[in-house]
Amino acid sequence: xxxxxxxxxxxxxxxxxxxxxxxxxxxxxxxxxxxxxxxxxxxxxxxxxxxxxxxxxxxxxxxxxxxxxxxxxxxxxxxxxxxxxxxxxxxxxxxxxxxxxxxxxxxxxxxxxxxxxxxxxxxxxxxxxxxxxxxxxxxxxxxxxxxxxxxxxxxxxxxxxxxxxxxxxxxxxxxxxxxxxxxxxxxxxxxxxxxxxxx
Length: 199
Ligand code: OGA
Ligand code: MN
Description:
single chain, alpha+beta, Jelly Rolls, seven-stranded antiparallel β-sheet, four-stranded antiparallel β-sheet, binds N-oxalylglycine, binds manganese (II) ion
């Protein structure tokens, strides 16, 4: 894991974003997917919205995924392991860049067939508490024909395309890069998290 984290740090330093295939083991992504199935069976997946607090609303023309935030008081072993890795990454980022990240928030996301998330920035208006976005995919054998790619819009006009294949991790500066999830042609499962500074 150490050398993989080092790869992310180097990419963040040189370009502000990183894509790492096979960051997490199949064993871990499979058991996270199992946790997601349980959460779904319990009816804990909710239609995702946009905006925050008073501004929060469901806007299915912008995003049509369903999400479930981690419940700190009720975590499976795989969720705990995932959080430990995120914590390690957070510490290494702080050591290297003095970013002062002190929180990590994360939710499962499930895109049913034809679901998408239009081009957006992860920071809420007038708030810079979300510093780094961290996404992990849980889908075995994802192919180009399955759609659902993440498009990351770089500031030089270049566009990075990522297949949401199990174990792949994407990490980027939340304030810098607009991104988009193209319509998925099969169910698409992921975890999206943010390293934050306290408000
Ligand atoms: C998000 C998001 C991208 C993805 O949840 O904010 O942009 O590839 N997710 O799942
Ligand atoms: Mn996003």
